[in-house]
Design goal:
30% of the residues lie in helices and 25% in strands. It has four domains: 183 residues, FAD/NAD(P)-binding domain, CATH 3.50.50.60; 116 residues, 3-Layer(bba) Sandwich (FAD/NAD(P)-binding domain); 114 residues, 3-Layer(bba) Sandwich (FAD/NAD(P)-binding domain), CATH 3.50.50; 110 residues, 3-Layer(aba) Sandwich (Oxidized Rhodanese, domain 1), CATH 3.40.250.10. The protein is α/β, with parallel strands linked by helices. The protein starts with 11 loop residues before the first strand and ends with a helix. The structure holds flavin-adenine dinucleotide.
Length: 574
């Protein structure tokens, strides 16, 4: 397929791996060099398929399998002049000779290349347990896995499934298998589901799973698979329980496929991925790598990081393909790991760092927890969402964000990811010029509210305290609950002075202006109003509880934070 222009022999670009990163690289290379010979080698039967759509195909939401085939080998040949060879597995690379060995049904060939793009992806993590090879134990990576699992689910009918791992893929399968009528037990080693969220947001996802009948076992490890007549019929958990089941889905995460790269002497980084520069060049001249197999630069920490997500793989593939064809390309931007998942009626997403990760990275991380409606409250159908925004107290730079709710979570998350990407400070959110009409948002969007709260704090109009900080706060503090009697009836914080916002001006004499006050309401807004009243009346030390009782309650339900703070929170909500 190479067509020399007469200016020298055409370049041969070989791409290994034909899905997200590899297919993007091959297609982009063609757009930059019409003369190059481009060969795409894929060991499986398909290229450019939508592995992200697999859970929805297994669950029956996507009914036509062909829809998962984003581009076929024929399309690659016809549209892009790419020589696609499926059923071709690359078994070794010689970077010095610029050749590789490829195995296929007809034998083994040596293929020379001028530029090589590696996009081999990542392999599912499989625990070392007897029985993992049984036909009813599944990992899910490609369409063949999807077909096997779908057939097993249909065979199981109203049976039982164990899903191991409560990351986003495990959660998607939990929902989809419930949808197919199976009873589902979800086993997770960590004390919470969805590790991309901080515990008080993750607890909302866990509650949604339980509401839909998923048996969630956090803080529990899969210890064994009990196989009888060739198939696994039960799982053994770390708490000693044995659960009968019809099938097991392992969704324990992935590890980068680096064997080819390592054998060829390419540098690997601290987290085990292939080291690349901003043009996705590896340590070997002429060799690029992209996708789940590489280490990207984290946009907040600046450190190398694995990020097995489709977005970075596609973007990196585009850059590698361009550079391989033209010896120049825009550079790959650092990654934030923005991710989102739907779990029954709830949507949860995160970008950048959570509080603990930010502290570990050396930031003075602080968080604002803000509830809000996805559109104007007066317009029918407003759904509540919870935003947690993490920023550096020293520079006020945004470090990360998490959003849980229903409609509109994706929009807030993407705005926050964009803001973080371009180095915004938390206060900058106050000035965003966002689209507004009642069915879509609010004139003061929850994102604005985060910005207003932050800006008010920066300007000294109020001080924020988080639920965790409040639980650790000892001493002579007056907790002032400014909600209404109806709300107090459901409980308040121990020792709290209950004085509704409407009463506050008349009863302020009951408070001691010389002692610290923490103002509390449901979500933080009325507490802020109370703070402003008190501050203007001469109270020097007044702090507003960010997220109000909603955040206290969520943290207590999650049982999160230090042992002391959790106990205190439990006490508080009793
Ligand atoms: P892959 O897409 O895995 O492609 C690698 C290909 O290389 C494979 O087809 C493999 O067969 C081939 N290969 C490997 N070694 C060789 C060799 N030696 N010779 C020839 N071929 C080889 N990400 C999101 O951002 N959002 C989602 O909602 C989402 N959902 C997902 C759901 C599922 C079930 C799965 C499995 C993944 C999901 N992902 C999602 C992750 C996303 O699909 C990956 O991050 C992305 O596909 C990585 O692209 P890649 O090109 O690096 O690897």
């Amino acid at each position: 397929m190479a067509r020399s222009t007469g200016a020298g022999p055409a370049r041969r670009i070989v791409v290994v791996g034909g899905v997200a990163g590899g297919a993007s690289a091959a297609a982009r290379a063609r757009r930059l060099d019409e003369t190059a010979e481009i060969v795409l080698l894929e060991r499986g039967p398909n290229v450019s398929f939508a592995n992200c759509g697999i859970p929805y195909y297994v669950g029956g939401e996507i009914t036509d399998r062909w829809r998962l085939l984003v581009a076929t080998p024929e399309r690659f040949r016809e549209w892009f002049g790419v020589d696609v060879r499926t059923g071709h597995e690359v078994v070794s690379i010689d970077p010095a000779a610029r050749t590789l060995r490829v195995r296929h049904a007809g034998g083994e060939d040596v293929l020379a290349w001028d530029r090589l793009v590696l996009a081999p992806g990542a392999a599912p993590v499989v625990p070392r347990l007897a029985g993992v090879g049984s036909p009813n134990v599944f990992t899910v990576r490609d369409l063949r896995d999807a077909d096997r699992l779908k057939a097993a689910v249909e065979r199981a009918g109203v049976g039982h499934a164990v899903i191991v791992g409560a990351g986003y893929i495990g959660l998607e399968f939990a929902e989809m298998l419930r949808r197919q009528g199976l009873d589902v037990t979800l086993v997770e080693r960590l004390p919470q589901v969805l590790r991309t969220l901080d515990p008080e947001l993750a607890v909302r996802v866990e509650e949604e799973l339980r509401r839909h009948g998923v048996d969630v076992r956090t803080g529990t490890t899969l210890e064994g698979l009990e196989a009888g007549t060739g198939v696994v019929h039960a799982v053994r958990l770390s708490d000693g329980e044995v659960i009968d089941t019809d099938l097991v889905v392992l969704a324990l995460g992935v590890k980068p496929e680096t064997r080819l790269a390592a054998d060829a002497g390419l540098a690997l980084g601290p987290s085990g991925g292939i080291v690349v520069d901003e043009f996705m060049r590896t340590s070997a001249p002429g060799v690029y790598a992209v996708g789940d197999a590489v280490e990207y630069t984290h946009a907040v920490t600046g450190k190398p990081t694995l990020m097995p997500l489709a977005g970075p793989a596609n973007r990196a593939g585009r850059i590698a393909g361009e550079h391989a064809a033209a010896d120049a390309a825009p550079s790959m931007s650092p990654v934030l790991g923005t991710s989102i998942v739907r779990v029954f009626g709830i949507v949860a997403g995160a970008t950048g760092l959570g509080v603990e990760a930010a502290r570990r990275a050396g930031f003075v991380a602080r968080a604002l927890f803000v509830p809000g409606n996805h559109h104007a409250g007066y317009y029918p159908g407003a759904e509540e969402m919870w935003l947690k925004v993490i920023y550096d107290d020293a520079t006020r730079r945004l470090l990360g964000a998490q959003v849980v709710g229903g409609e509109g979570v994706d929009k807030r998350l993407d705005v926050l990811a964009t803001a973080i990407r371009f180095g915004a400070r938390v206060d900058d959110l106050a000035s965003l010029d966002l689209a507004y009409a009642p069915p879509f948002g609010s004139a003061k969007d929850p994102l604005h509210m985060v910005g207003f709260i932050a800006e008010n704090e920066r300007r000294g109009l109020h001080r924020i305290i988080t639920a965790e900080e409040l639980a650790l706060l000892g001493g002579d503090v007056q907790i002032l609950d400014v909600r209404t009697p109806l709300e107090w009836a459901a409980g308040t914080l121990p020792g709290a002075i209950t004085m509704s916002l409407a009463e506050l001006r008349g009863r302020v004499g009951e408070l001691d202006a010389a002692r610290p006050v923490v103002t509390v309401c449901r979500g933080g807004q009325r507490a802020y109003y109370a703070t402003r009243i008190l501050r203007q009346l001469g109270f020097a030390d007044v702090r507003t509880l960010t997220g109000g009782m909603l955040s206290v309650d969520a943290l207590a339900r999650a049982g999160a934070g230090s042992a002391t703070s959790t106990t205190n929170l439990m006490e508080m909500t009793r």
